[in-house]
Each structure stands twice: as structure tokens, then as C-alpha cells.
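Let us practice reading a record.
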Amino acid sequence: MSLWKSYGASVRGPGHVASGEPNQDAWASFHRVWGDGIVISDGVGSKPFSHIGSDAACFAAQYAAHACRDDATIDPASLFQSIMTFWLTCVAPLEPRDCAATCLFAFRLRDHLHVGMLGDGLAAAVRADGSVVSLVEDKAQGFSNITTALSPHVTAQDWRYLALPADEYSAVLLCTDGVSDDLENVDGFVTGLVEAYRPLAAVSASRHVRTMLERWPTPRHSDDKTLACLCRAEATDA
């Protein structure tokens, strides 16, 4: 079985740097005998404890992956419910509505990649031939400036989800809307970043991602920015 590695970074946007507010994004990764994964979250800016909610979302997704690690098949609805249950436990005793946050994850469990997305941002899986399969939030049924976020009222229908054969894919990249909203060529950005950082060790790749996010070229950008990648490790990785 191929080894998988992860790298990523999360930085405060200029708006939060200027106001002294915390980063409302978060990310996490795990690598275990039973699987590998990454998760990112973007706290809803209008909520007072969204930075706590985004941290909780990252913990909750990891707990949910661990809870289903021995399942021969993964029921997406049960996975989503597990994330919600663990998230509510993590944010307690705060009001969940004050901690609203998105949740995007990519797990390698057994021989499949499980990619899920609640809210905005981007989840993109790269096939071995270099083509890209992406998930983006469908805002056709709602206002373009309102995103779905973790709350007790979220249902399985609010999530977007892919189950992909792991041996046919080389990487999955996740990013919050502070990154994805500025991309004009999504596939080009995804494949270019994955290939550029694939030869690097995880720590070095994460350092490069942080530098890129801190020097983000879009004029007048203000949002926090988070990017994480789960990819096959090359034999030459240091």
C-alpha cells in the first residue's frame, strides 16, 4: 500500500491582522495505521466564537474518521452525523450558533478516498493522469453570500461528498474560500501546486504553503486563508 503524506498552512488575512482578531480558519491532519486524512474549516465571520468552531470542526472530523476506521463500508450519512455529534461536544457549553463553521475533509480509509464538504471553499482530487475532480458549494438555491455551516439543523443533504478509489488518485487538495474565491484556473492551480510540492518533505512543503498564503497576490484581499493537501509520498521524500 502506498504511503500518504500531508502538508498545509493557515494564515490570518490582512483584515484580522489589522483588527487584532484571531484566525477564524483552522486545519489538521492525521496519519495512522488504519488511514490518513486532512480537514479544514472556516469559521463564519459574523459569529463571536467561530474560531473555536473551526478548531472544533477539525477535531470532530478526525474523531469521526477514527470511529469508522474498522467499517468495511462507509455510510456517508453516518459519517456526517458523527462529525456533527463530536462537533457539538467540542463546542459545548457554548451555543452552537455562535460557533458556526464550515467543514471540508479528505480521508483515506482502506482502499477509498472519502471527500466531504459542508459550506464553501474547494475540495479537489487529482487523478493519476493529472485530471481533476472538484467539489464546490452549490449556491443555486440560496444567496451567494450565505454559506452552509455546522449547526444542529444541518442534514446529510447539505453535504457534498465523493467516494473515490484511492489507487486511481494521487492527491486531494482542500482550501477555504479565502483561497478558492480568487482562483481563475482551479485545475491549473491544483495540479501546479501538487506537482511543485510533491518532492518536498511535509515540513518543507508546509513552510512553502505558508509563505505563498502570506504573500497572496490578489489586491485588497482580506480573508483568512487555509490550504491543506493529502498526497502520495514519493520514495525520495526526506
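A brief commentary: Confidence is low (pLDDT under 50) at residues 141-145.
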